[in-house]
Write the structure tokens for this entry.
Amino acid sequence: MRQSEQEAKLKLGELSSLRVQKPDASLIPIFDLSVELCSNRYLIRPSYQRQEKINIYKASAIIESIILGINLPPLFIYKNKQNVKEVIDGQQRLLSILGFLGNQYQDELGKAVYPKIVNFKLKKLKILNELNGSGYNDLDLVTKDKILDFKLSVIEIDSAINSNFDPVDLFIRLNNKPYPIQYNSFEMWNSFMDRDVIEKIKDVTNSNIDWFFIKRRNLKNSSDRMLNEELVTLLSYICYNTHHRPDYTSIGFYQRDNKVNKVSCRITDKKDVSALLERISTDIELKTDFIKCIDEVAEIINHIKIKLDEKDYDISLSGLLNRDTNHRYLLDFYLLFQIMQRLNKERLKNISFQEIQDKMLEIQREIKTPTNLEKNQTPQEYFEKLLCDISV
């Protein structure tokens, strides 16, 4: 309602191009999807898919999660040039569901077939013990409805608007053990996030990769997990929340093992990171703001670099973090940027290496053993105040 006509046209224009780059994500009820799977619109086992390996115990665990309302990992679907939807990832989940319901699906030859395990009885459930030994037809109507109404998350990549996409490549990456793509990671975000944002993050990462890294990049190692790109993304996410969602807690401080003298620091909810990054492709204002935050992170990285010893930025950064070069932790980068982001521009420009190092050392000591944590004070309250106090 607040947009001008020109802004509205701009947004519609960008959306049309963004759809070329971003797969649509949707929630589909099991009932609807099971009907589609028995038609020629779906190919649950394309040629590059592996054979059925699901067993009754794993299948039972999937059904138990559905009844409990626990979200399952998203299905990756590729809509090929014939408008047939190929299941890239999620075959075993779908076959478990169809098998339990006693439903058929259409195979690669166009024949209606049953999964290898069909009409099975639930076994070794961890929570719903009372349902052990039950098949679908043994369940009450309420439980049956829970299963049929349960919504599966589906990420669909359309060949018509993603001409360079290779489903076999994504399948291999998703299933390349021991290095499968982790959910809520940069590897996953890279498959659906806006290309402009992706390239911006990669540019910032690559421009500083020789010294600013969480894990040293090995060009000979084909299993680069994009951890350094993920680091820049997370720092930008924290920066975005600081400016645009100040009441949201991006970084959480928690007691470890219920011991007051041990505290951990991590992203509060990485699912929230994924949700925000997904919205970027359909929200121009969000995209613009997030890119500004990437620029802000790049600017802070540059300020840090100026403070370091130019003879060896790598070793000098490790000294700033009070770590050796081979042992860097996300926690240290979170703390460093929490300090740097609290400084005004003048202070950010003039603060010395030694001052930053001393501040880092102080908060790292407190992380190991909080000295003044009061009985009724949470670690979150304590460390947020501490960061504000030392960032002066």
